[in-house]
Fold this protein.
Amino acid sequence: MDLHFGDSKPTDEERAAVDALLGPPESSWEGAARDEMRTDDLRWARGGRAARDRRDLLLPGLHAINDRIGWISEGALDYLCRRLTVPPAEAYGVATFYAMFSVRPRPATVLHLCTDLACAAAGAEELCAGAEARLGPGSGVQVERSPCLGLCERAPAALAVRAGDPVRTAVAAPATVGTAVRTATAPGSAPEEPPAVLAVPQAGDPSLLLLGRVGAVDPASLDDYRAHGGYGALRRAFELGPAGVIREVTDSGLVGRGGAAFPTGRKWQATASQPDHPHYLVCNADESEPGTFKDRVIMEGDPYALVEAMTIAAYAVGAHRGYLYLRGEYPRAIHRMEHAIGQARARGLLGEDVLGQGFAFDIEIRRGAGAYICGEETALFNSIEGYRGEPRSKPPFPVEKGLFGRPTAENNVETLVNVVPVLTMGAEAYAAIGTPKSTGPKLYCVSGSVDRPGVYELPFGATLGELLTLAGVRDGLRAVLLGGAAGGFVRADELDVPLTFEGTREAGTTLGSGVVMAFDGTVPLPRLLLRIAEFFRDESCGQCVPCRVGTVRQQEALHRIADRTGAAAAADIALLREVGRAMRDASICGLGQTAWNAVESAIDRLGAYE
């Protein structure tokens, strides 16, 4: 592809897709037809600074083209770059960064088949082979093997995307070869997705704080949400004032639920105290960790709770604009959140005067496009701003210079929805749940060799065994993966591990984002580890050498020893340890720092290659 402005022209459909997002171009600088009677048209870049300030619309623009056409041609990319005055070389780098985009011609329909851990254990390889055999050249469907689709409780999973106006999506999970093929070839006849409540085995339990409304409230109805206590927390926030909200959250002991466990109140206070303005709020809903799907269930089953929680957080930190970065593989969650935000805006719960309190706040959804690294907060900021989703070096930290270089508070979905019960029940009552160091309830994504997979809510301090008993763990349990691909394995005789941040740390593992994946003896562990290594190799952004090279070397070594044990594998295991230490010590972000964790734990705790 020519990386300069060239002679390639967009088709009418491609031009329409971009113009639907950006509006019609005003001058030939932006791609409008040249006016031969105007000599100033090519000398004056009308709105040049304003156009450059719209760089953050690059990702939505790429989505607009990809949604309408199915791929991004040179002419379409060139036109989008003219509209936004973005150098084509940079836009090409962004377009090729994401797995859901293509800069090469492909059919209008793409069938994504999940090959990650839960789906691999549920027969993903057979599903892929069968679908590829049925949907060969000439079928009008491109089959792509995909990382985790976030449907682990219904593994194996398939997602079909058919380009057009509008774009159409359909999900089949659990998928067979027949349902996957039918979903791709006739999305309208695909089976309807089950309601979100079916992913909550504890539904109806009155003790649930975070999942209590899932299944009990119509997720499309704002009135139903308010009838079940919705927006009571925001009203109390206005009574307390921003400083009072931060004090309440701090006193509750709430820490981040994405894995880092940083105190939420401290983060909010640090953001609120920054003299630089404007401040921003970012909700990270790009849960791409294999085995994680709790945020999807909340957004599909209780979307207004997230809207309310984001509004409270924004009020506390002094932000008037919030961004919800939502992974592109969640079409139903996107539709539910778009509807909830629209209804809240129409009813005065978002906008210039929230609840008549003189506080202005609104939320914009930004759709991801398939990049695990964008779950890292600074990579997410780069993605929103229209750059490649590569992590930034820290310091400065996001509370000082985050999104658009301004003070930013970033939290994931589960962390934010915890703020609602903190304010409704009070910090003291909330802190009494769990343990002194890990307060409140925690959501766990349970999948694999269990009878009742789904999202579970338990107070911190429950043991792994208690959780697996609720989920109906099957006989022959061999190992449990905690924290997803970036986490670690524990043995079947270690189920007394307390599920707290400090308890898992003392046990030599991690709680991470709450992934609990059980594997029995039918799952070949070496192949599972190889899949984890392939995942990190594919998802490394390549910015730093330790991760870019280390993930490749890790995968190569695991390929060599996949079917070997004992002395035959010893040299490669020693190499794996050396590479793993280098990645952990020298990688820029958490991806490289944790890429060795699961493999290390499998070797040391499970004797994977003995």
Notes: The radius of gyration is 24 Å.
